[in-house]
Amino acid sequence: MQLIRPDTHFDFIGRRKPALALSGLLVLASIVLLVVKGLNFGIDFTGGTLVEVKFQHPPAIADVRQALKPAGYGQAVIQEYGAPDEILIRVQNKAGEKSSTISTAVLGALSKRFGKSEVTMRRVEYVGPQVGRELTRAGIMAVLIAMVAILLYVTVRFELRFALGADAALVHDVTIVLGLFSLTGAEFNLPVVAALLTVIGYSLNDTIVVFDRIRENLAANRKKKNPDSEADVANAAINQTLARTLMTSLTTLLVVVALFFLGGEVIHGFAMALLAGIIVGTYSSIFVASPIMLALAGRFKASEEETRELEARP
Prior knowledge:
By secondary structure, this protein is α+β, with helices and mostly antiparallel strands. Helices cover 67% and strands 11% of the residues.
């Protein structure tokens, strides 16, 4: 069964101008949002309060979260700590809010839901902003190192213009995903950083598949008596890999959509970043990486001149 014909002839390269204009608009809007509004950093980056509580009977994490919602801490990070009856709750401090106030409110909310005799406070700690700054630097460095490593790898395996096209697509993908988090105000935490690195790998994988086919087609094209333009070769390569690209993206999206709607609050941001990243990454592997690679070599101009010459012939 074939959902996509293997002999498609969509003119992706011919639609490069409106596609790149759309990409430029989205990237610019994302940068403006990041500068003006910024990101809603979670406790991993901003610091906050850690509250450890012990239950007489192991509770369900979902029940603990429901108990904290009326107190305004429904977005807290909740996890088992050591044993099923010991729960660690991480809460981001609001402006002027003290850790003692948070711990009292958390204990009161849990006691109201589970009973006073069921819950015991074990410890309260404040994680200062210094930790947040270190994590911020580590997260940024992780993304930058990944980008530089990819640039070097693609340069060695292909050519510099291929590497620049691939990195441009990755910057495009990461910037738009960050812009989405800024627009929605969704919490930006370490799992989201992990999702961004996953998006980089996923997008690069798609781009490399297309570039590999372009390289193969270019080698075969040079042996022709009347070789095609590089733009036509790239367009053919994108069409030849289209079925694989879309089927891979669709099957991956099925899992990510399930995580997004059914995975719970803890991995909601992670799933959201993956969902946006897969969609944008699939788009960029078709409409961003190859057109930029060709533009860097000035191949569009040559292709247009060749087209005019062919049209002028009797």
